[in-house]
Amino acid sequence: MKTFRFLTIILLLANCSCEGFLDVRPQGEVVNNELFKNAEGFEDALYGVYATLAGEDFYGRKMTYWMNDILAQYYTRNVISDETTMLAAFRYEDQTVRPMIDDLWVGMYKNIGYVNNILINLKRFEPSDLTYYNLYRAESLGLRAFMHFELLRFFSENIVNNPSARGIPYNENYSYQVPPFLSAFQVYDKIIADFKEAETLLAAAGEDFGPDDANRRGFLRDRNIHINLHAVRALLARVYWTKGELQQAAEYCAKVIDSGVFSLADKSEIADLMNGIISPQETIWGLFSDRFYRSTEADLFIADKGLHLKSHEDDYAADRVGADYRYEGWFRYYSASLHTQGWRCIKVFDIFRQESRRRPTAVVAGVSIIRLPELYYIMAEYHLSMNNQSEAMEYFDRVLSSRGLTPMADRGGNTTLTIGHIIRERKKEFICEGQYFHTLKRYNQDIYDPRNMLTFPASNDIYVFPIPENEINYRD
């Protein structure tokens, strides 16, 4: 495992001040010259961006099992604070929720600014000056595209429902200049362009290797915690799927699936697939974090503070033929003798550390951002859109089989795969990963709150976060 030199980098980058949220001020030539004088400086800067994304304000908590899954109504006891109660009710303007949304906007654009600073300073060098010049540029472009895409998913309408939806600013600078708001369609174009340039650079570098190659050293080690070639292609598939362009999405899914680098886990491996680690089989890209355990312990395990679940038996019973090993392995009921009585999601919780058991070797601690099953679901949906039921079912059944379920093709009768089946499987598969809320938005689904037995009709009120007031005021 590489040793990350995060603290110095974050201190150098964190001194930005801003009047408008996108006005990320440059650090000046002294800082740039000190930080970006050699390859080590560029690598440290990239590690700093990855570390920020892995923190609690982003994917180490808020944007995976916490905020996103509260919105998706996975939890039945999220009354531990006014913030979670109001968030679960989609009260985005509430004084306990609005600061969190504003902080998401601010924090992500600051991180985008740091990436832009890397790209700007790379221009002072030639590719021949730095051994991994093209990798630095590719990862920076991929990160910039990814972060803009995440903001777009929260702060813009679903473009499938409204092709003329307003988007967000696409920041390609590290300066006083505040970029304008673009249409969602224009933002998608820029996201795709950045990802495609990253893909070209990574493919040219010959980055076709396994996710955990122990023979590699330095910057090339543990490429599954970097924006790598397969990650770029998988994220492009997600972008095209969200945009509603299924054929392009399927083309990128096929590139990753057919690479042979990743494989669906066996049903016997499901329980420990993601227990505080990045799955060495299924995770195409994840973020290293040795602190993810602390967040998940506080939120998902400690009863008096944690987010409680229903048993989810009904969810996993839907369409179940055979034994669903996800239900058996990802949930645990704790009695009052151990903790306050209730169900916990231990899917992403480091149960090895909690129970003082030896964790598998050669794995990376952290959180998964995109995994292989998502690509199979997209492929199934694409073939459904082409009225190719047998091909759609083939991709869908591969995930079912790996989870211990009987493939639909083997169930007899007039079994037909539908979008409803895919949505239900996404709900089961993505718990504690923060993806199901985006799934519901993509399909424009009503959201049911089982705690209060309420249904929230699909609308911009629940699916579009408000732009921070300071951002709007700064432009007036």
How does this structure look, described?
With 476 residues, this protein is mainly alpha-helical. It has 20 helices and eleven strands. It has helices at residues 6-13, 29-35, 39-53, 62-71, 82-88, 98-122, 133-155, 184-204, 229-243, 246-257, 292-301, 313-317, 325-330, 351-354, 372-385, 389-402, 419-429, 436-442, 460-463, 469-475, and strands at 75-77, 166-169, 181-183, 277-278, 283-288, 308-309, 331-334, 342-345, 364-371, 447-449, 454-456. A three-stranded antiparallel sheet has the order 4-9-5. The chain has a two-stranded antiparallel sheet with strand order 1-6. α10 packs across α15 and α15 packs antiparallel against α16 (389-402). The longest helix is centred in the first third of the chain and has 25 residues, at 98-122. It starts with 5 loop residues before the first helix and ends with a helix. Residues 1-30 have low confidence and may be disordered.
Outline the secondary-structure elements.
Layout: H1 6-13, H2 29-35, H3 39-53, H4 62-71, E1 75-77, H5 82-88, H6 98-122, H7 133-155, E2 166-169, E3 181-183, H8 184-204, H9 229-243, H10 246-257, E4 277-278, E5 283-288, H11 292-301, E6 308-309, H12 313-317, H13 325-330, E7 331-334, E8 342-345, H14 351-354, E9 364-371, H15 372-385, H16 389-402, H17 419-429, H18 436-442, E10 447-449, E11 454-456, H19 460-463, H20 469-475
Antiparallel strand pairs: 1-6, 2-3, 4-9, 5-9, 7-8, 10-11
Helix pairs in contact: 1-3, 3-6, 3-7, 6-7, 7-8, 8-9, 9-10, 9-15, 10-15, 15-16, 15-17
